[in-house]
Amino acid sequence: MIVAVKKGADQKQIDNLLSWLRTQGIQPSLSVGSHQTVIGCIGDVSRIDIGLVRALDVVESVQRIQEPYKDANRKFHPEDTVVDCGGPKIGGGNFQTIAGPCSVESEEQITGIAKAVKASGASMLRGGAFKPRTSPYSFQGLGAEGIKMLAAAKKETGLPIVTEIMNIAHLPLFADVDVIQVGARNMQNFELLKELGHCGKPVLLKRGMANTLEELLMSAEYVMSGGNANVILCERGIRTFETATRNTIDLSVVPVLHHLSHLPVVIDPSHSTGASRLVEPLSVAAAAIGADGLIIEVHNDPAHAKCDGAQSQTPAMFDETMKKVRAVLPFACKDR
Ligand code: PEP
Ligand code: MN
User: Measured in angstroms, how far is the CA atom of residue 185 from the centroid of ligand 2?
Assistant: First the structure.
């Protein structure tokens, strides 16, 4: 962090600023120029409230030269993190596809879809039991029963299961769940993130629909600083002025996040686009740009799905998509 001191500041004010910085655990070093006086700050500045420093009378401007996240930062952890998702490993060159319906609807439905997506090459099963719906009148998910149905599908197919948590009080119901999903709407539910920091299970953290990548990484930091290093980042599109797609997906997040962080990056082409016909091109593009995985909604009967039917692929569409994804993976960008 570099602090520029206001012109006209006297020595006493500068000394006060230096000692205040020291109380924050920082080693300040003063450089007095003929036009500008600056203070270089060395140490862990991640805990400093930069807005507060900027607001001090004697301060002209402040520039952070180190990101506010540490555990998620590639600078402190140059190697890619590989997350074990109850068998399949993701990250560090390991690509995985998570597939399944938006919501679990019945044991027959989830088991049937699990078998189909497994046959097409998916390595994990998704399905919402607790659903974050915009309308309280929409299907809210089967809750604890839904998780039992996912567990039955896992028993039948061997596919590890990924499902969303909305309330930390539900955590005991997640004993059979392999990867806990934090949805876009809860990306900044900090109390939930803190608890997941010691839940002992990998967390698939979705980017909020109005959040920056730095905010996504700060949310990952909440989980990681609690002792859980197994975080998978997920881009699912953000809100923009564009209305042609449900959300806007900017695939540059993949190389950008890989540069900033060592965590695996998964793309969700279903919520990103809202349209099943767009899922295949976005999946292929995500694989080619170097994503570590995909999470795709697949439904046996999209027209009658209880949630997100318009963006759900049929098993046949998913099979085609997987073939094309496999074809591009050997040529995927690997730059970090
Ligand atoms: C989901 O995966 O079904 C979901 C609700 O996703 P998101 O949080 O990205 O909207
Ligand atoms: Mn959905």
Answer: 12
Scan for tokens 């600083």, then name that residue.
225
pLDDT band with cut points at 50, 70 and 90 for residue 257: very high
Please give the distance, rounded to the nearest whole angstrom, from the Cα atom of residue 74 to the centre of ligand 1: 27
Does 336 score more than 90 pLDDT? no
Which of ligand 1's atoms lies nearest the C-alpha of 132? Answer: 5
**3-state DSSP call for residue 135?**
coil
What is the dihedral angle through the alpha carbons of 75, 78, 80, 86, rounded to the nearest 10 degrees? -90
Bridge partners (DSSP) of residue 90 are: 83
Tell me which ligand sits closest to the C-alpha of residue 238. Answer: 1
Among residues 28, 63, 98, which one ends one of the domains? 63
Helix, strand, or coil (residue 11): helix
Task: Say if 71 falls within a structural domain.
Answer: no
Please state the atom number of ligand 1 nearest to the C-alpha of residue 206: 9
User: Ligand 2 centre and the CA of 307: distance in Å?
Assistant: 6
Across 1-30, average pLDDT:
94
Cα 99 to Cα 297: distance, rounded to the nearest angstrom: 6
Report pTM. Answer: 0.93
Number of domains in the chain: 2
Would residue 289 count as lying in a domain?
Answer: yes
**Residue 236 CB less than 6 A away from ligand 1:** yes
DSSP structure string for 84-108: E-SS-EEBTTB-EEEEE-SB---HH
Q: Distance of CA 117 to CAs 48, 95, 100, 296, Å?
A: 47, 16, 7, 10
Q: Whose CA is nearest to atom 4 of ligand 1?
A: 183
State in Å: Cα 126 to ligand 2 middle: 10
* 78 domain-assigned: no
Task: Evaluate: CB of 128 within 6 angstroms of ligand 1.
Answer: yes
